[in-house]
């Protein structure tokens, strides 16, 4: 109406001043600390920023931003790239994939009962089949003998029994010396016959067990042992007189045999002339 003053738009909805900066009415902006602010009626209205998350496993907000992202997946605290295929630790062969921020996992289908193959046995919580053999039931992997025959070893593998003979070592003796003892599975070489004497020289001279002889040195004595070996020992002589007599073929000197004078041997109480003076007569006295 004439004479009526019309207020300006600025007076109806004035601008907002926030932290020293002007904002137009209806303006929306984001402040540090992830606050969403709006200018309304000259006042800045701020509230925490609400972030819509269109995925089930969002990643933390990148540095400098407020809202988490869905480019990739966060699974059990581990970041996975988009399209990454991975397995879960101790997940019984479960395989997972990261798609659009969501993690989808697939577990293998395990057949009931015994495992059909070793590969599925590693992933499935199945139990290998037991073995029924000759009226007995054996667990998978059990080893046993065949009807008490220790020479044959059997093993239960996935419901089937496999038997094999016990391996025997190679013998280094001729076949005519092979011997199979009672209760033994493998042949063995016969024990060599016990020696009946000792062979001591190239001429094949044999000494019976227990025989004692001297091999040429009167101070050395040898004896034939029961196992065919020869044991020898030297004799230690002890001189008990100042003038011992060495008798040929005897090991130790003899103090009771007589006297030695100028290379000759005289018996006890024997008299003989002196070489130095023919008028002197000498006598051998053994003391």
From TrEMBL:
Database matches in Pfam families: VWC (PF00093), VWC2L_2nd (PF23334)
One GO cellular component term noted in the UniProt record for this chain: cytoplasm
Record keywords, A-Z: Glycoprotein, Secreted, Signal
Membrane-spanning ranges: none
GO BP term (any one): cellular response to virus
Residue runs in coiled coils: none
Name by which UniProt lists this protein: VWCE protein
Source organism per UniProt: Crypturellus undulatus
Taxon lineage: Eukaryota, Metazoa, Chordata, Craniata, Vertebrata
Gene: Vwce_0
